[in-house]
Amino acid sequence: MGHIDRMTHETRGAGPDLVFVMGWGNRLGGENERWFVDRLVNDYTVHTFEIPTNGTDFEADYLRPVREHAADLDDPLFLSHSTGGLVVGHLAPERAVYISPWWAFYGAKLRGPVFEYGMRLPVDRPFVPIDFEQHEVGPRVSDEAWSNLPKQVSPAFIRTIRDAQSSMPDPGDEALVCCTLRETLVGLQGIGERVAPEQIRLYDGTHEPFSSADREAACSVVEDTLETLA
């Protein structure tokens, strides 16, 4: 499967509106993503967004579609995962739960002088290899799902993400973050710099709680966190 360059969404369920912006590479039809959304639709009307994997205009490609859709809803609750957390962070809703938000890069991933130079190239063609492996996403990620994930990103995409990280507004005192200390895809320092310790809920798992070994327990932490804001 190639890169997704246009945001798509689906709406399912009954109950209060929940806007769920998924992470980079997550798919509306993905087995693990679908398993998680199937749980959420028991309590919410879930508006699930699949985001572009090579977006180069953060406002047009990521923010505007979600903002315009949410504007027609009555005081929705927001949920996001990974890159989706960067999108929702810029929307700055009053009620939001962020799962493993990509507010900072992890360690040495996508860093170094060669990459720093390459990132400045005015190129939107993906050729920079992604710097993570299947097991880091979660042990429930199938070989088929991994094979369908784009394996390269463009300098323009990384530059867009870094600019968005540096310009993201304060998520606010009501924001809640669910994350794992086993995280190796996004930088936990980005969470620690933006929210207080009492705003953080830890789950035992990997980057995707819905792809973790004990996904029932990991996602229960997320669901309980949502209930505190609902």
Topology of helices and strands:
Elements: E1 8-13, E2 17-21, H1 31-40, E3 45-50, H2 58-70, E4 77-81, H3 83-91, E5 96-99, H4 113-119, E6 128-129, H5 134-137, H6 143-147, E7 152-153, H7 155-167, E8 176-179, H8 188-192, E9 200-202, H9 215-229
Parallel strand pairs: 2-3, 2-4, 4-5, 5-8, 8-9
Antiparallel strand pairs: 1-3, 6-7
Helix pairs in contact: 2-3
Strand order of the largest sheet: 1-3-2-4-5-8-9
Instruction: Assign the CATH topology.
Output: Rossmann fold
Computed structural class: alpha/beta
Q: What is the oligomer described by this structure? A: single chain
Share in β-strands: 15-25%
What overall form do the CA principal axes indicate? globular
Structure, explained:
- With about 230 residues, the chain is of the alpha/beta class.
- The chain has one domain (about 10-230): Alpha/Beta hydrolase fold, catalytic domain (Rossmann fold), CATH 3.40.50.
- Helices cover about 35% and strands about 15% of the residues.
- The protein is built from 9 helices and 9 strands.
- The strands form 2 sheets. It has a 7-stranded mixed beta sheet with strand order 1-3-2-4-5-8-9, with helices on both faces. The protein has a two-stranded antiparallel sheet with strand order 6-7.
- Helix 2 (about 60-70) packs across helix 3 (about 85-90).
- The protein is globular, with a radius of gyration of 16 Å.
